[in-house]
Amino acid sequence: MVALQAVMHKAPSTASTDFDAVVIGAGVSGLYQLYRLRELGLKVRVFEAGTGVGGTWYWNRYPGARFDSESWTYGYSFSQELLDEWDWAEHFAGQPETERYLNYVADKFDLRRDIQFNSRVTAAHYREDTRRWDILLDDGRRYATRLLVTAVGILSAATLPTIRGLEMFRGQSCHTHYWPQEPVRFDGKRVAVIGTGATGVQTITEVAKTAGHLSVFQRTPQWCAPLHNSKIGQEEMGRIRANYAQIFARCQETYGCFIHTADPRGTFEVTAEEREAFWEKLYSEPGFGIWMGNFRDVLMDREANKLISDFVARKIRRRVKDLTVAEKLIPKNHGFGTRRVPLESGYFEVYNQPNVELIDINETPIERITPTGIKTTAAEYQFDIIIYATGFDAITGAFDRIDIRGVDGVSLKEKWQDRPQTFLGMLVDGFPNMFMVLGPHAGLGNIPRAVEYNADWVTGLIRFARERGFTRIEATAAGATAWTDHVIAASEGLLFTEIDSWMTGINRNVEGKHVRRIMRYSGGHPAFRQRCDAVAAEGYRELALT
Ligand code: NAP
To answer: Which atom of ligand 1 is nearest to the CA of 508?
Structure first.
C-alpha cells in the first residue's frame, strides 16, 4: 500500500493548478517569504526538494555543522511572540538546534499546509499570453502561478570534485551537503576528508574525535579563527531576550548585519603594542569579530592585511606542534579575510593527534579515487569512508540548475553566463513577476537579517502593484545595468576580489565558473537598504509596472 502510494505520488501528471505565488525553497528565506505573502491574502505554494523545512539547515547535517553567527542574531526578528518563546541553547547553535528552530517556526505559523515537499522545481517558464509562470517539477507535475519567488539559497548547489573514479569507490562516501539523516559512526574507521573550507574545518574537527584514522586532503589552507562557542543558561537567555531590540538595531547598522562592526581606526594609526593587544583581544573573543570587527583597512590595504595575516600565522605555528604541518596549514596564496573566514573549535590541535594526517595535494595531487580509497602521485590510501567537503556552485548555481526562461524564452542561465545582472539582486529585466530573495548582487551578510529585509521589500512591491492593478512587474534593462555597474564599482579596492573563492564565483568543478566575477553587493547593508528604500519611496518608478 505504502509502495503504491509512493508510485502514484511520483507519477507524471499534466494537472494544472493556479497559484497567486510560487516560492521555490522552504529554507530561512522561503519560510519567511511564505509568511509575508500569505499576509497579503495570496494563494501561495512553496515547492521544496527536501522532505522537511530548513534549507541549509535541513541538508547540511554533517558532523560538527553549526552557526558561525551568534544564534541570537540569526533568529527571525519579525515576531515578538517567537522571540519570547524560543530559547537558544548555545551562542553558536549546532545544526540540530537550528533545524528544530526552523521546524518550530513552521509549526507556530502553520506554514506547512502551503509547502509541498519532495518537489524539486526543474523548470519555470514565463508565458506572456497568460502572464503566468509555468512550473515543472522533477516528477513531471505542472503548475501555473502569477508570481514567482526564488528562495533557493546562496550555497545550495553542492558540487563534487571532478576527480576520476569517484563512482568506483566501494566504501561509504558522501558530500557534506547530502549527509544522511541516520548517524554515521567513525569509530575505528579509516576516513578521508577532501576540502578544507568552513564545512571541511567543522567536519574534520568532529570526525577526528572518533575516527580510527583521518586523512585530510588539503588543496588550499584557510585563515581559520577561533569560534569560542559556549552554552547559554536561562539567566543569560533572559538578558539576551531583554536586549533583542538593541541587538537587531545594531545588526541594521553594521556592514554585514552581524553584531560586529569594523573598528574606525586604521592599522597604522596605532602603535605596534596597541595593534597586538587589539588582535589578541579579537582572537580571544567569540564569533566573527576578528574578521568584521578588525581595523577598518585590513581587508583593503595590502600592508595592513599582511600584518594581520602574520599575526594569525603566528597563532597557527603556536598551536600546531609539527612545524612542517603548521607551515602547510598557513595560507600562502591569499591574505587573512580575503576568503570567508572559517571559525573553528580546536581545528589546528586536531593535527597534533596521532590519528590525523594532513596530505597536501599540491605536493602530491590526487590521481583518482579507487574502489578502496584514494591514489595520489605518492601513495595509495585505503579508506572505509570518503567525505567530500568540496563546496558549492555558489549564488548563481541554484538558479542554473533550474531551466528558468523569461520573455521570448530567454534562458536566465545564458543571460548570466558571463556575469549576473540584476536590479538590486531582486529583479531581472526580461523576467517579469519573478522576484529573488538573496539573488546575485543583493546585500548579503548575516543571512536571516538580509532575508527579512529582502522578503519584506519584495512583499511591499507586490502589495503596491496589487493595490494599483498592475499585473506585470519588471526591472528595466537600464536599471539592471546601472545596479550591476554600481555593484562592481562598490567592490573596487577590496582585496577579496583578487582571490579565487565562491565569493568571486569560482568553482573549478563546474564548467564556466573558472573566471572571477562580482557575485554580491559589497557596499554594506545600510547602503543597500537605503537604495532599495528609495526605490520604494519613489513609487517604484525605476521599474516597468503595467
Ligand atoms: P568552500 O569554502 O568552497 O570549500 C571547498 C573546499 O573543497 C576547499 O578547500 C576547496 O579547495 C576544496 N575542493 C574543491 N574541489 C576540490 C577538488 N577537486 N580537489 C580538492 N579539493 C577541492 O565550501 P564550504 O567549506 O562548503 O563552505 C562554503 C561556504 O558555506 C562557507 O564559506 C560559508 O559561507 C558557508 N558555511 C557556513 C557555515 C557556518 O555558518 N557555520 C559552515 C559551513 C559552511 P580550494 O580552496 O583550493 O578550492
So the answer is: 15
Q: 56, 390, 499, 500: which to mutate for ligand 1, most atoms within 8 A of CB?
A: 390
In whole angstroms, give the CA distance from residue 284 to residue 282.
Answer: 5
Determine, yes or no, domain membership for 340.
Answer: yes
User: Over the stretch 304-355, which tens digit does the pLDDT of each residue have?
Assistant: 999 999 999 999 999 999 999 999 999 999 999 999 999 999 999 999 999 9
318 CA to centre of ligand 1 in angstroms: 25
Please determine, for residue 37, whether its predicted confidence score (pLDDT) is greater than 60.
Answer: yes
**Range 314-321 contact pairs with CB under 8 angstroms and sequence separation of 24 or more:** 315/283, 316/348, 319/348, 319/349, 320/348, 320/349, 320/351, 320/352, 321/352
pLDDT score at 11: 33
| Whether residues 367 and 412 fall in one domain | no
Separation CA 208–CA 348 (nearest Å): 11
Whose grid coordinates read 520604494? Answer: 536
The reported pLDDT for the residue numbered 12 is 34
Structurally, the chain folds into a number of domains equal to: 2
Taking CA atoms only, the protein residue closest to ligand 1 atom 6 is 195
* 207, HSE (Cβ side, Cα atoms, 13 Å): 28
Distance in Å, CA 68 to ligand 1 centroid: 14
Separation of alpha carbons 225 and 207, rounded Å = 19
Nearest C-alpha neighbor of 286 from the set 532, 59, 41, 70: 70
One domain for residues 354 and 410: no
Identify whether the C-beta of residue 483 lies closer than 8 Å to the C-beta of residue 373. no
Name the strand (E) or helix (H) holding 414.
Answer: helix 412-415
User: Which residue carries 588582535 as its cell?
Assistant: 279
The residue among 329, 364, 388 that closes a domain is 388
Residue 287 covered by a domain? yes
Q: Which residue range forms the structural domain that includes residue 460?
A: 19-53+111-157+394-545
**How high is the pLDDT of residue 264?**
98
Q: What is the DSSP code (8-state) at residue 86?
A: P
Distance CA 9, CA 328 (A): 52
Amino acid of residue 121: V
Q: Are 150 and 395 in contact (CB under 8 A)?
A: no
> Residue 13's pLDDT is what?
40
Same-domain status, 423 and 382: no
254 and 337 co-located in one domain: yes
Say yes or no: 365 and 242 in one domain: yes
**Inside any domain, residue 227:** yes
